[in-house]
Specification:
Blueprint lengths: L1 H11 L2 H51 L3 H26 L9 H20 L1 H23 L4 H45 L1
Amino acid sequence: MLENELSRIWKSSSKEEQIKFDKSRLLIEVQAKVDDFNKQMKILYIREALGSFIAIPMFTFYAFVAPYILTKVAFGLIALWAVFILLVIKRSKAKVPDQFNLKYLDYLQQTKAYLEEQKKFRENILTWYVLPFVLFTWLGLLGIYQEDPEALDTLAIIGIGSLVVGIVIHYLNLRSSRKVVVPRLEKVNTLISTLQE
C-alpha cells in the first residue's frame, strides 16, 4: 500500500522534485558507503597496529639473542619494518576527513583524496608491505641455513610459506582495491559532479 502511494507521488511530481529526491538518495547512499569503509579501515588499523606492537619488542629481542648474524640483521629489519607500518597507519589515519568540520563538498573532496590514497596503498602493497616481509624472512632463513645446512627442508617450507602468504596478501589487497575502494570512489566522484551542477 505504502509502495503504491510512493509510486503515485513519484509519478505526479515534477522533474525538479525528482532530481532533488535522486540527489538526496545519492547523498545518503554515498555517506553510508563511506561510513562503512571508515569502519573497515578502523578495524584494519587496529589489527595492523596490534601486530606491529607485538612484532617490535619480539623481533628486537630476537635480534639480540639470535645466534646467527644474518638472522640478527633480519630480525632487526623486521622490527624496523613494523615501526614503518605504524608510521604508515598514523599518516593514513591523519588523512581521514572529518565530516563535521567541513562544508559537505569539501568533505567529499577530502574523502575522494583519501580513497585515492587507499587505492594507491593497496595497489602498491607489493613494494612497501609484501617484499619487505618476504625478503626479511628469507634473509633470516639464509642466516640459519649458513650455520645449519641440515635444516634446508624446514627452511624451504617456511620460505615457500612466506612467499605464498605474500602472494595472498598482494592478491587480497588488489581485490580490495577493485571491489571496495574503486566503487566507493566512483560514487563519491558521481556525487561531487552532481553537487557541482
